[in-house]
Specification:
alpha+beta; three-stranded mixed beta sheet; three-stranded antiparallel beta sheet; 6 strands; binds zinc ion
């Protein structure tokens, strides 16, 4: 399952931070998910609980912030927001878009004890 692997990656990042910053408990993991990343937030939350059990992140709350997809429109020569890949430019309706953001997933913040 795609989400399971992602959660294992998140736990890996949390454990790495725990070593660097020497905290013992994580209360909240704030995650940024790009609109174009094909990650289902609900599935991710579900997996996170399972994967976090018996790790430093056990019982931590997963907060998910969705960030918009962005693309560069060659016709408009400007950056535009898109909700899906292969969507036309919202300004000119053209398809000469290059995706520039919104595909990534990253840990934005950890609230720790
Ligand atoms: Zn355009």
């Amino acid at each position: 399952m795609h989400e399971m692997a992602l959660c294992e990656g998140i736990i890996g990042i949390v454990e790495e931070e725990a070593r660097k910053r020497a905290f013992a408990k994580v209360k909240v993991v704030c995650l940024e998910i790009g609109a174009l990343s094909h990650v289902a937030p609900e599935a991710l939350k579900f997996c996170f609980e399972a994967v976090a059990a018996r790790t430093i992140a056990q019982g931590a709350k997963l907060e998910i912030v969705e960030t918009p997809g962005t693309a560069w429109c060659m016709a408009c020569s400007e950056s535009v927001e898109i909700k899906q890949r292969y969507e036309p430019c919202p300004s000119c309706g053209g398809y000469q878009l290059q995706v520039t953001g919104g595909e990534e997933m990253r840990v934005r913040e950890l609230e720790v004890d």
